[in-house]
Amino acid sequence: RRLLAHLPRGSCGPSTRRSLCASASSKERPLIVVHRESEHIAAVQLSHKPVNALTHQVLLELTGAIRELEDDPQIHGMLLGSAVPGIFSAGLDIRTFYGAPENVLADYWTAVQDLWLTLYSTRLATVAAIGGHSPAGGCMLSLSCDERVMLEGEKFRIGLNETQLGIVAPDWFASILTDVVGVRSSYRMLMLGELVSPSVALERGMVDEVVPLHQLHGAATARLDALLKIPHKARVATKLMLRGQRAEALRCRQSEDLDTFMTCLNDPEVQSMIGAYLASLSKKKPPKDN
After folding, report:
1. Which residue in the list 61, 147, 162, 209 is annotated as catalytic?
2. How confident is the model at residue 27 (pLDDT cuts 50, 70, 90)?
3. What pLDDT is attached to residue 152?
4. What is the rounded average pLDDT for all residues in the chain?
5. What is the mean pLDDT of residues 132-158?
6. Residue 218 catalytic?
7. Per-residue pLDDT averaged across 238-267, rounded?
8. Does the annotation count 137 as an active-site position?
9. Per the residue annotation, which of 131, 132, 137, 166 is the catalytic one?
10. What is the C-alpha to C-alpha distance for residues 53 and 91, in angstroms, rounded to an integer?
11. Catalytic, out of 46, 119, 161, 166
12. Ramachandran area for residue 182 (φ above 0: left; ψ -120 to 50: alpha; else beta)
């Protein structure tokens, strides 16, 4: 269900910027779309309408897409974006959290851990093109990239708002927020479950640039090009030096992190809050999925 325009090269004809190559027999809309932007850059887009929720399948396919790009020695950079207008990603699949069997929850959270470890520690230079709302897990994805460009518009929001649902963001979510906004600001944002506008996100350092829609792709590409001008081995070694310790810390205690997540989700009060939230969503008219 993932479209890959870069592997194998030539199978879909010459690579064209922003073009997609799909199998003629493909009837299902892909969840993740990958295409080659240039010789050394690939674009990865979330394409799971209506809000790019990180379902278990999306998590697996996004992780797989990043790993396939890493296996291509010619690809050095990745643009992470969205094919759904007005949304980067609404984050983790809350519906999975409600009343699910323990094995389903365990498989889901393991997939979240694996995606973060893959994206956060990839050798690829990564820039997130945040084309709209990016709460919770969506914010986690963007903060895991090397740089972030966000679409302007005061209606859009970004942040880690887990506490508003009675959920505790894991420390590895919290740490990447602290890295960009500082300890005190991160403390308040996490405690309050605060979502902020693009202009506030820029002011606090959560994003590096805020631009109008017609400049989003170009601005993100320019930042990625700047990263790729640095000698490859030096850039990769520096990135792994800065991020390796934090990634290894999670690898060494994935089981304990899973236990903490399961304990939180199985709390009756948390389940009640999630149930109430899902009920409120069901009362809203769902967006049309064309």
Report:
1. 162
2. low
3. 98
4. 89
5. 98
6. no
7. 95
8. yes
9. 137
10. 5
11. 161
12. left
